[in-house]
Amino acid sequence: MSPRGALTLFTVLALLSGCDDMTVQPKAGAWSPEATLVTPPQDTVAWGDAALKPPPLTLALLQRGQQRFRIDCTPCHSELGDGNGMVVQRGFPAPPSYHIDRLRQAPTQHFYDVMTDGYGAMYSFAGRVSPPDRWAIAAYIRALQLSQHPPATAVQTSR
Ligand code: HEC
User: What is the CA radius of gyration of the chain?
Assistant: First the structure.
């Protein structure tokens, strides 16, 4: 074999040695139709789902609601719920005050639904606030409303 022939044979053999059956390479986490059927976490509520039932009203529920409200809602609604939060002071559309008649008369379920579905310019909190926490926050909004419209009997100072 001429040196040139030997070189050609060597090159062909070298190229062929790179050819193995790539279809049988094992892969971690290979795609399968079953793998795409993701089960959502238990307390996930999709847009438009029926609301979970409200839990019993307790002090612990209100305290949880206050804590979550301060994290998720005060940036726009303010600690007082008057709709003048820091983000609004920086230019975000102002929400209505929780203390207007319409929202004082709205069922507690409405607050839950607004968190689930969003409302106008307000985006949904379904992915951020779990259903039990939505009830806790809704209960706390009720407490906030009461704080701004206490019944006269609640503010008697002397007897
Ligand atoms: C980024 C700002 C922002 C945050 C954060 C926010 N909201 Fe709102 N919210 C709005 C705006 C703006 C509106 C008014 C939307 C409209 O009428 O178009 C609104 C409206 C509302 C209303 C009144 C709906 C009605 O019937 O008029 C409720 C109740 C409410 N939000 C609850 C909440 C709760 C509870 C949270 C916290 C989980 C929250 N919001 C967080 C901006 C926000």
Answer: 31
